Amino acid sequence: MAKLLALLVILGLSALISGERIVNCYWGTWSNYRSGDGKFDVSNIDANLCTHLSYSFFGINNNGDIQTLDSWLDYDLGFIRQAVDLKHQNPHLKVLAVVGGWNEGSAKYSDMAGDWNKRQNFINSALSLLRNNGFDGLDLDWEYPNQRGGKWEDRSNFVTLLRELKEAFAPYGYELGIAVGAGEATAATSYEIANIAQHVNFINVMTYDFAMASDGQTGFNAPQWAIENAINYWLSQGAPADKLVLGVGSYGRTFQLSDPSQNWPGAPCRGVGGAGMYTGDGGYLGYNEICQNNWHTVFDENNAAPYAFSGDQWVSYDNVLSVQWKMDFALRMNLAGAMMWSIETDDFRGHCGESYPLLKTINRKLRW
C-alpha cells in the first residue's frame, strides 16, 4: 500500500510538471560582447526562472544545412555546453536551439522549404545539432514566410517542413517550437495557422514591435489592445490556446521627438532614439538601461503600458505593471505560457531593485 501511495504521489508530481505553463527564456548569446554591466553570459542565467532556454541563434547555408553563426562563442568558449549544463541546476529545464532570426532574412529559408533535398539537409543537420550537443529541441524563427524575399508557396512549404521535422523528431522526443509574427497583417500573409499548429509543440507569438520610429510618430511597443487582438486572431484561425506562448519584450522602442514639447503618444518624431550604454543600437533600449535613466515616466491606462521621455528622447516599453496585465490576459485565455525576448536586457543585475524583475513577474503569475 505504501508503495502504491508513493507511486501515485510521483505520478501526481509528474502530471503537475508536464502541465506546467511555459516560461520560455530567449537568450541572445551575442550579449557576451557587451561592455560593462551589460555583458551577459551563462553565469548570469537563473535556470529556475525558465522552463525553456532558447539559445539564439543558429543560421543556415545555401544548401539548407544549419550552421553556427559564432563558432568561437558556441564551441571555443563552450557556451552551448554551459547552457545545456544548466539542466543540472534545473532538471526540468529544456534547452532549445533557435534557428533563424531577423538578421538571417527569409530568402534562404524560402529556398530550403521549397526544395526536398534542402529540407532533408536541414532536418538531418537539425538532428545532428540536437543530438551532438544535448539540446532538447528546435525553435524555428523564420522571419517571415512569403515576406522579405520569400514567395507565396512558403505558406504551404512551411507546413510541409514542420510536418517532416515533427516526424523526424518523434523517435527522440525532441520538442519543436516556432516563433511567429503576431499581428493579423503579418500572420495572414505568412501562415496557414491551423495547419502549422498541428505539427509543433508550441508557438511563440512575438507580441511586440507594434510601433517603430519609421511610423513617423511615437507609439507603444506592446499595447495591451494590440496583443489581445493578435492572440484573438491566432485563436480565430485555428491555433489552440494551449500551444500559444505570449511574447514579452524586455526592451523598449525609442524615438527622437521632432519637438521636445510634444512628448505624448502619437507625437511626431524625426527618427530613432539614441543608443543605450549597453545595447549600443539606435531605436532600442534594454529594460536594464531604461530603468536607470530617471526619465519622466507615464503609465498609460488605455494601453496598459508605460512610456518615458527626456528632452527629445522618447521610449515605449514594458515594466512590472504592464507585464502583470499581459500575464493576467494569458491566464484568462488559458494560453500555454509566456516567452521573453530576451533575458539579457531584463535588469538581470538588479540595479533598479530585485534582479530579473520582468522575468520574475512572469513566473509569479504563471508558475509560483
From TrEMBL:
Residues 1-19 form the signal peptide. One of its GO terms (biological process) is chitin catabolic process. It comes from the Eukaryota. GO terms for cellular component: extracellular region. Gene3D superfamilies: 3.10.50.10, Glycosidases (3.20.20.80). CDD domains: GH18_chitolectin_chitotriosidase (cd02872). PANTHER family: CHITINASE, CHITINASE 4-RELATED. Belongs to the glycosyl hydrolase 18 family. This is GH20465. It comes from Drosophila grimshawi.
